[in-house]
Amino acid sequence: MNSPESRLRIRKEADVTVVEFLDRHLLDEANIAQFSEDIGSLVNSETSPKVLISFANVEHLSSAVLSALITIHNRIKTKDGQLRLSDISDQILEVFHITQLDRMFHIHKGADDALESFA
Amino acid sequence: MASDPDTRDQQGGEAERSSARRPPANDAAPPGSICIDLQPERQRIDALRDEIVAALTDAGYTETACFAVRLAYEEAITNARDHGNDGQSDLPIRVEYHVTPARFFLRIADQGHGFNPKAVSDPTLPENLLNPAGRGLLLIRAYMSEVAFNDRGNEITCIYKNPQQPLSGERSA
């Protein structure tokens, strides 16, 4: 399911698409654009997509990642889908809190919690 | 990592040894600052970031502090490259930095006409929350102790005060 250039690990859990990052640092603008495009493609390929994005491996990110997540969120909303985020470190959670994006995203401590939360 | 075509200089000769004075963010760069004209390519941006983080680690900064500086550096460089330099994203960006155990100084300047930081809308307002852009400056301000812009608006200066170290008796790293 991954393209050769993809820096994502993508798998299915029932009807939920689970996305994990292979990189610890999400800073490279080319990689960010690529993962945004990869996730955008899988959202476009489904009706009412259910997507879980896990940050289990991620130690650093930039605001460009937040921009990509908002774009993905908006796209999923227009398709009447659902997006969950999980496994976010305390340091990165603080970034979501400062930007108040923790109010917009459904953030779960672990992937299991997140998977159970899908309607 | 003084690799071509970046150029660098150490300003002021003797490194700052001690100072009771705490220069605000819009003062001249501290003596002994490293000054680099950085080609804004990802590899060079990463290498300079790693160099700065290594200097911070050597000076006793915690991982939390390094996370804050790494984020501010990344956001300021991205703003200079993508929004400064008037669309010429290959123009060099001037980076000055200085590390003491008590304080980290970072100044980043592009060659563009500048912008008015007061005109940037607050991305945390409900009407802006779904707008993907405009969070870099918010994060810099949140993580740095002091942030200032020059009058032209093409140069940002950030100071991070190490909470583990009092400023009195400051010594160079």
CATH architecture of chain A: 2-Layer Sandwich
CATH fold-level name of chain B:
Heat Shock Protein 90
Uncertain regions spanning at least 5 consecutive residues of chain B:
13-23
Distance between the termini of chain A: 25 Å
Q: How would you name the CATH homologous superfamily of chain A?
A: STAS domain
Q: How many individual helices of chain A?
A: 4
Binned, the helix content of chain A reads 40-55%
* Oligomer type: heterodimer
Strand content of chain B: 15-25%
How would you write the strand order of the largest sheet of chain B?
A: 1-2-3-4-6-5
Main sheet attributes: strand count, strand direction, barrel closure of chain B: 6 strands, antiparallel
Helix content of chain B: 25-40%
Shape of chain A: globular
Write structural notes for this entry.
The complex is a heterodimer of chains A (119) and B (173). Chain A has 119 residues and is α/β, with parallel strands linked by helices. Chain A has one domain (8-117): 2-Layer Sandwich (Transcription Regulator spoIIAA), CATH 3.30.750. Chain A is built from four helices and seven strands. Chain A has helices spanning 29-44, 63-78, 90-98, 111-117, and strands spanning 8-13, 16-21, 25-26, 50-54, 60-61, 82-86, 106-108. A five-stranded mixed β-sheet of chain A has the order 1-2-4-6-7. In chain A, strand 6 (82-86), helix 3 (90-98) and strand 7 form a beta-alpha-beta unit. Chain A starts with 7 loop residues before the first strand and ends with a helix. With 173 residues, chain B is an alpha+beta fold. Helices cover 26% and strands 20% of the residues of chain B. Chain B has a six-stranded antiparallel β-sheet, with helices on one face. The longest helix of chain B is centred in the middle third of the chain and has 20 residues, at 63-82. Classes of the chains: A alpha/beta (119), B alpha+beta (173). Chain A binds chain B through residues 27-30, 60, 62-64, 66-68, 70-71, 73-74, 91, 95, 98-101, 103-104, and chain B through 42, 46, 64, 67, 70-71, 74-75, 78, 123-124, 129-133, 135-136, 138-139, 142.
